[in-house]
Design a protein that fits this description.
Elements: H1 5-33, E1 38-41, E2 49-52, E3 57-64, E4 71-74, E5 82-91, E6 103-111, E7 115-124, E8 135-143
Length: 144
Amino acid sequence: MTFNRTKGSTTLITLGAALLSVCISLVFYASFSQGAETVAVNKAFNGREIKVRAGGFIRVSLEEMGAAGYAWHIKNLDKNHFAIVSVETTSTPPGSDVTGAPVMKTWLISTKERGLAVLKFLHYRPWEGEEHASETFVLNVRIL
């Protein structure tokens, strides 16, 4: 079997990327299956403090007006305490076919070092800049 050098290299790179993706997924699945704590929060938690163990996860779900250009952005993520595992955007309400309907953006964030840290999200249009944010979401996190 012969490969065109460019096509064969592209195929190997694609296979390597797929394998890496599967390995990363298995690592996170193992974390969840071993009982890693996940704390789910939404807009109602704005300004509150939550407690989560180091090595646990925080699932932040916020509604955004994507059709109007607004999106939630994390402001100055404290990389000593947090790491973004995934970001997902889904339609809301589920199954809604309404053009321009809000969407739900959900971050899965892992906790690292013990201590007190802040997660801050700003809701703004990227072309207007964060100084024109329509909303702010702040979550105080005590990592145990």
